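RECORD TYPE: protein structure
NAME: UDP-4-amino-4, 6-dideoxy-N-acetyl-beta-L-altrosamine N-acetyltransferase
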Amino acid sequence: MGLRFTRVTENDAELLLTWRTSPEITKGMFTDLVNPSVGSQRRWIASLADRDDYRAYMICDDNTPVGFLCFADIDHHNRKCSTGSYIYERAARLKYGVTLHTYICNYVFHHLNMNKIVNQVMNANDKVVKLQLLHKTRLVGVLKQHIFKNGEFHDVHLFEQLKQDWLEQKQHFSLEQIAAAFDDWKSL
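PREDICTED:
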């Protein structure tokens, strides 16, 4: 079965909290949770039901959760959004780290019908910066000393991916295969 994406539910709260408070994950995040608890995580997940500008998913290797994916700042008028993800399990990171971008872009451009993805990546997350460049995502620029975290300033790399540019790239997976991986993408 392979890579799958299921909408986050309150049952995922404890696992998400474990991942989100892991030093390996938080070092690349812009914010840290204040007074983290399973209860606050459940409340955050419950709040997502009323939002049209944010979607959250568990990344699964077959049926085993291995990471988190979100589509944020969804702007239907200007047809743009941002994305964020992390794969907690190292083996899954090695297995899916490169291909995850293909699923994300196809979901954004074909299911959400966006024209553009805009992402910001902190320089502490150097592997993601390299992956963005590998996938021919355009580096718009670098915001110098943009985030203060863990006692130091960090640069933020600003990337964009246009639908037209994405469609011109060679696709390694069929759109049907990608759509089938998302639990809320029922038809093309």
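COMMENT: The chain is about 35% helix and 35% strand.
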